[in-house]
Amino acid sequence: MKDSPIYEDVSHLLKRSQVVFLLIEVLFLFVAFYYWKIQILDYKNYWSQSEANRIREVVVPAPRAVLTDRGGSVVLVNNIASFKASIIRENCKNFEESCRKISLVLGLEEDVLKKRIEKYRSLPLFKPIVVKDNLSLEDVALIEGRKMDLPELVIETEPKRFYPFANLAAHVLGYMQELTPDELRTTFKDRRLGDMVGKTGIENMYESRLAGVDGKIVEVVDSLGRKRDELDRVEPQQSPKLTLALDYDLQAKAEELLAGKEGAIVILEAKTGGVMALASYPTYDPNKFVNRFTPEEWMALANNPDTPLVNRALQGQYSPGSIFKLVMAAAALDTGTITDQTTFFCGGVIEIFGRPFHCWFEPGHGTINFYEAIRQSCNVYFYNLGRRMNIDAIAGYAEQFGLGQRTGIDISGEKEGLVPSTSWKQRTQKTAWYPGETISVAIGQGPLQVTPMQIATMTALIANRGRKVRPHTLLDGSSPTESVKIPAAIFEQVIEGMWRSANAGGTSQGAKVENYDVCSKTGTAQTIGRETAERLGLKPKTHSWFSGFAPRNDPQLVVTVLVEFGGMGGATAAPMAGQLFQLYKAKYHDRQSPAPRN
Amino acid sequence: MIDRVQLREIDWVLIGLLLVNSVIGILLIYSSSQYQAGNFYVRQAIWLLISLGVLFLVLSIDYKILVGFSPYIYVLFILLLIGLLVFGRVIAGAKSWIRLAVFGGQPSELAKVVVLLVLARIFAEFRRTYVSLAFGLLSGAVVFAPMAVVALQPDLGTAISFLPLLLASLVLAGMNRKTLALLLIIAVVAGFVGWNFFLKDYQKQRLTTLVNPGQDPRGSGYHVLQSKIAIGSGGLAGKGFKKGSQSQLRFLPARHTDFIFSVLGEEFGFVGVFFVFLSYFFFLARIFRSIGKSRDRAGIYIVFMAACMLSFQFLINVMMIVGLFPITGVPIPMLSYGGSSLLTTFVVVGLVVNVKMRRFVNV
User: Which of A1, A6, A13 comes nearest B295 by C-beta?
Assistant: First the structure.
């Protein structure tokens, strides 16, 4: 390299460098000012942002209260741990790539997965979106193993409602479903999206007692949502278990008896109204609701023509048929229309208001007294009562017996039934009641509508000689102590007829249990009028009813059975009830085990 | 090679400032990488010792000799960079790494020193007040060749830090309006062609999110946002050493390299930021003041380009981490983790001291 002159004039170079340095000084000042603005002026704003970045509150759902049967040892509903996989979108490096990987790991269709995520698009990015629940342990292991690879996929555990006996008492226990956005805004403001709440039955009625108090963990997380530290922890609190009045053995037996049929069975503690069994068939498995239905499963259940979701014991409304004769009998005695010695002649048919009314027993019962009329369920005897009584008086007694109104059971969705009266006819059909209709009502036909639970409650009232009960599902539930204004003597007379019906070769003799004094009545409710059936040349289809209690002098339980299209009450319903009385007697009397609290 | 006079003239203050800033860097690296595998601060400390050794090695050779050999080294480096492009493995998204025994290095960093020397050699011969077109084109070609190869690796951050060398040399050599206009036209055309044909999508996105970092908090804007949160939440006094939630909990990306200054801002607050600003400013100011203490044009160009290069990298970095400049992956000399970067800085400072200590030498 050539030598350069040493004392060359380089002052213009120095000047230029000074200008550049000045520029850099200005930039330094500007940048320093900007840092001052961020760190001093906007400090609060950035500080709160950094706090929000690192602190996350995780809710620990409280397990719902356990439900047991009346003995306390049979667990009807509890909770099991369930694993669900969720995607946290803010942890995705590349959303498409994540979806592809996750669909492979979980074995889901990629577009199904994307659709599910799309549904919750409006949620904040850090909120986990459930992509699959009820993971198998293999799935859990697979996901845990790829934790580093897939930070956006997290596994959460939560207690899941579990019904160990599946269908058993489904209509009492009820089912749970995810909150709808509407409910979230109104009834359940403090709950979170995706939470399950009871929709029917006890799960629904006692939601607040079952739900418990959710716990929470306040944790410090890193940018991948991984937990680094725990600042605070509040353990979830489970509510104490609820003991139901339900008796597992009776419930199981009742469902076994109904299997393959359509109908309902109600067993009440006679004195308190505790529901010892409530079966409605066809039924469903509440576990299916917890596990989130596939669309096909839901459609199949909701559109099933046999309506498994309908609680027939509370929501099914049927003609009571001859069961209503118990109301007529008490009403006739109480109004003085007859005494227990009054007899009528049954020739198999009777003409009233110029129209023939038939007894079910075509040859006729001959001259028949009050007790025998109940025992043999003689229609003609009760036609005679109907002719002598006013429909509004009958309606008044029916209402005293609890018909035409809700029983007040602690399960929602109960139907009221229907007790016709002149004012009802005027109101709904704008015509006058004509006396011929009263004759039909006298044997429990016509517009009368009752639910099996109403009949069971009515039977308990008779068993208690006029003291009312309100059915309830919890063992410690209470009943009012009021009574109807009908003398106990009249109930004794009606009960004598019911005793004969079961024990002296009456229509409900199928329910007879040795040494157990069952008192009962059957009913055979026509679903279409006898005349219509004959005109159409059809054999009338009938619902089969039974309702009774036992023992006669110290009533313990009431059994009501309804089998839709079951034929004659005595043929179908009564023998089923007999087995239930038998089971009860064997469990609580013969084995000398402690009697239910009465 | 070094006589006593020269030894006395060694700028120990400058070397001292260099060491102070580098030690601050190691402290920050220690804090920001404590939850990470690999002892980054230990490695950086080893690199610091190596770099210090190299610095004294650089001092022992007269810079004129280095300038004289620079064209050969330049050709060697271009070949090495092209070789990397063809045969190199992709590390951290770019084929910019060469592996030697335990430590890996990025030759593209050291290439800057070589380019600096070549430019010094070119402009040492130049005595007119304004740069001629021929000189402009020649120096441009010298800079753009390695820059293009590095940009293809693709390592945009390092490629961009070649530019201040060219700009500095041209500014110092002086530009008349015609050359300035020509350069502007070239810049616009290059920008247009680059945007449409060469810039990758992520690089474009970085430029667009500069305008609005909030538009996509998980995408490109995310890093700037988190960095601003880190710095802003540090406040006046900071959250304390190793106590920055943003950095310790990994909300900050590349905490020990490109975003090391954010860690400083979060953990030591504005006080810490201001202190490092000051010490950095003294360091740069001292280099700028050394320009006049050079015996020839080559020396002047070396010192000036060194000053501009270091200032540019520092300012770009502290601006990009608060969203005043697109994220380009330019590390802060001395502070950021990275052996090649540290070594380059030491060599550059070594050259400055080299020029300064030999100002009285008669050749």
Answer: A6
